[in-house]
Amino acid sequence: MCGRFAQIQTRADYLDVLASDLEFAGALDNVPIARYNVAPGTRVLILNQRDDKLHLDPVEWGYGPDWWREMKRQPVINARVETAATSRMFKPLWNHGRALVMADGWYEWKKDKHDGKVKQPYFIYHESKAPIFFAAISRHHPDAKEPPDDDGFVIVTSASDSGLLDIHDRRPVVLPPAAAREWMRPDITSARAEELANEAATPPDDFDWHPVASAVGNTRNNQPELVKNIDNHLE
To answer: What DSSP assignment string belongs to 183-231?
Structure first.
C-alpha cells in the first residue's frame, strides 16, 4: 500500500522530469514544496490534464462517494489496480479522473520478525533518486468555491515482488515520464489506462530503500531528517 510519502522538491523540478509538451496552467517558483511526511486526510498537489493544459490542484488524499459515507465508512486512500477500473467505487474516477501524484519516495513499515508489535519504517525511492509519479485517480471540482464532501483522490497500488516484497506486499504504481504523460490524457481508453498501470509501471528492481527514524510515524513531524538513512535494519 502507500500510506505516507514525501513531496519535497519544487513544482518546476517535477515538471522538468515529466517533460510534457503541454502548457502548464499556473505559476512556477523556486520554493520547494518541502513536505517530508504527507499523510492521508491532507490536501496534496496532484497533476492532471484539462483543456490540453497541465494543472496542479490541491485535493484531499482520501475518497469515499456519498453511498460509501452513508454507510459510515472512512475514506479510502488506495485503489487496487486489479479491480479499480471496474469497481463500483472507482470506475468513474478511473475513466475521468486520472491524475499523478508527484513524489520523491514513500514510506512503509516492516514488522520485526521477533515482535509483531515493533515496526521499522523504511523510505523507498527510485535508485536514481529522481522524482517519481504515482498513478492516481480522483474526483475534484477545481473551480468550486467549496469542494464537495466526496472530492478526493486515491493512489493506485499493485502487488509487490522482488525485494520490495520484503518490506510490504503492496506498492504504489509508479509511472515513468512517458507513461505518466499518457496516463493523464483524457482521450485514452480505460483499457489503455489498465495497460499502462500493469505493463508500463517502473519495476520493483528499480527502487532502493533504507530505514528511517520512527519520528515519521507522527504526522506532525515534517523535517528533512525523516528521509535520512539511520542504517538500522531489522534482522
So the answer is: HH-TTS-HHHHHHHHHHSSPPGGGEEEEE--GGGGSTT---GGGGS---
54-66: average pLDDT: 95
pLDDT value at 51 more than 60: yes
Q: How many helices (H) and strands (E) does the chain have?
A: 5, 13
For residue 56 the three cell numbers come to 496542479
Would you call 2 a catalytic residue per the annotation? Answer: yes
Give the C-alpha separation, 198 to 87, whole Å: 17
**Residue-wise burial string across 72-107, b where 16 or more C-beta atoms lie within 10 A, e elsewhere:** eeebebbbebeebbeeebbeebbeebbbbbbbbbbb
- Taking the C-alpha atoms of residue 221 and residue 190, their distance in angstroms, rounded to an integer, is 38
For residue 146, the surrounding DSSP H or E stretch is none
* Among 108, 182, 194, 195, the one annotated catalytic: 108
Report the alpha-carbon angle 115-116-119, nearest 5: 95
Q: How confident is the model at residue 168 (pLDDT cuts 50, 70, 90)?
A: low
Q: Specify the 3-state DSSP secondary structure of 51.
A: coil
Whether 150 and 139 have beta carbons less than 8 Å apart is answered as yes
Residue tagged active-site, from 2, 70, 182, 225: 2
Of 194, 189, 202, nearest to 162 by C-alpha is: 202
Instruction: Note if 70 is an active site residue.
Output: no
pTM of the model: 0.93
Picking from 122, 135, 31, the residue whose alpha carbon sits closest to that of residue 93 is: 135
Selected residue with higher pLDDT from 72 and 167: 72
Say how far apart CA 181 and CA 21 lie, in whole Å: 9
